[in-house]
Amino acid sequence: MEVGFLGLGIMGKAMSMNLLKNGFKVTVWNRTLSKCDEVVAHGASVGETPAEVVKKCNITIAILSDPAAALSVVFDKGGVLDQICSGKGYIDMSTVDPETSCKISEAIALKGGHFLEAPVSGSKQPAETGQLVILAAREKALYEEAVPAFDVLGKKYFFLGPVGNGAKMKLVVNMIMGSVMNAFSEGLTLAERSGLNPHSLLDVLDLGGIANPMFKGKGPEMLKDNYSPAFPLKHQQKDMRLALALGDQNAVSMPVAAAANEAFKKARSMGLGDLDFSAVFETVKLLKHSS
Ligand SMILES: NC(=O)C1=CN([C@@H]2O[C@H](COP(=O)(O)OP(=O)(O)OC[C@H]3O[C@@H](n4cnc5c(N)ncnc54)[C@H](OP(=O)(O)O)[C@@H]3O)[C@@H](O)[C@H]2O)C=CC1
Ligand SMILES: O=CCCC(=O)O
């Protein structure tokens, strides 16, 4: 099976490498061309524009930073819309708001093409090992056609119905994750400042009802001030912002998420946006130093 792949950031590079390793023919495009080098060394071809990739492949997958990037790759000159047509499918796995997904879906339908939104849960390592959770919505036929690729990329995939439902599910999940990361950062700081060993806190948490892979994986690294990016903080803040907008639209009061969003904004203002989202821990530690 031949697939196109647009966007070779942390996720896109890992996912396209995984497809190559599993026998797929892959044609890639990335705004910054040099980021294609490693996947090309593993057998990928390169398209000069998103349109060129779509022209060559019946299914094209994209995973791009945010709504502006997702729209630009579809609507700009040389974009997906220039070549999408009947018989061709476009699968956007970026985390965006439902409105962005709807705009892309409508434009592709007007050209006779097929669209699936399919954001993913799971980060760099699950992307490398094909353990993502895929949250798809819109066209069931394209979802079924994409199953061989989803089998490689994910450990589980869901079809959630009408366009927008994939984006909504992803934003709800990441809103919870961002809020939990802030509570975790406060807990680690409180443990340390009140005279406990924060490593002991990690051991205790891991044995109880709120044990989870995020505490287990990120906790020891946070205690070493290691924020090597798996999920960049700027993207987590984007997801909090988009989830809060979804809350506005549905009149859902979310004071915990709003406070978490402020902490991620603060972290961005401290220049931490390109680090892992666990670097929000630094905003709590900053308060410690200023007291
Ligand atoms: N990292 C993670 O753990 C996860 C991320 N996600 C989501 O997946 C998406 C990608 O994340 P990730 O790979 O981490 O992000 P990165 O920041 O590593 O990569 C972003 C990608 O988007 C491209 N891009 C940015 N702006 C534009 C633009 N205007 N036009 C064209 N391309 C553009 C970048 O190109 P260039 O190289 O030229 O900058 C790059 O390929 C985001 O929506 C994120 O929220 C979802 C699950 C997990
Ligand atoms: O959107 C990013 C999700 C990161 C994760 O699930 O660990």
Verbal overview:
The chain has 291 residues and is an alpha/beta fold. 54% of the residues lie in helices and 13% in strands. The chain has 14 helices and nine strands. It has helices spanning 10-21, 37-41, 50-56, 67-75, 98-110, 124-129, 140-145, 147-153, 165-193, 198-206, 213-223, 233-249, 255-269, 281-290, and strands spanning 2-6, 25-29, 45-46, 59-62, 89-92, 114-117, 120-121, 132-138, 154-159. Strands 1, 2, 3, 4, 5, 6, 7, 8 and 9 form a nine-stranded mixed beta sheet that branches. Helix 5 (98-110) links the parallel strand 5 (89-92) and strand 6 (114-117). Helix 9 packs across helix 13 (255-269). The longest helix has 29 residues, at 165-193. The chain is globular, with a radius of gyration of 20 Å. It starts with a strand and ends with a helix. Belongs to the HIBADH-related family. NP60 subfamily. Residues 164-282 form the 3-hydroxyisobutyrate dehydrogenase-like NAD-binding domain.
What's the arrangement of secondary structure elements?
Elements: E1 2-6, H1 10-21, E2 25-29, H2 37-41, E3 45-46, H3 50-56, E4 59-62, H4 67-75, E5 89-92, H5 98-110, E6 114-117, E7 120-121, H6 124-129, E8 132-138, H7 140-145, H8 147-153, E9 154-159, H9 165-193, H10 198-206, H11 213-223, H12 233-249, H13 255-269, H14 281-290
Parallel strand pairs: 1-2, 1-4, 2-3, 4-5, 5-6, 8-9
Antiparallel strand pairs: 6-8, 7-8
Domain 3-hydroxyisobutyrate dehydrogenase-like NAD-binding: 164-282
Catalytic activity: glycolate + NADP(+) = glyoxylate + NADPH + H(+); 4-hydroxybutanoate + NADP(+) = succinate semialdehyde + NADPH + H(+)
Protein name: 6-phosphogluconate dehydrogenase NADP-binding domain-containing protein
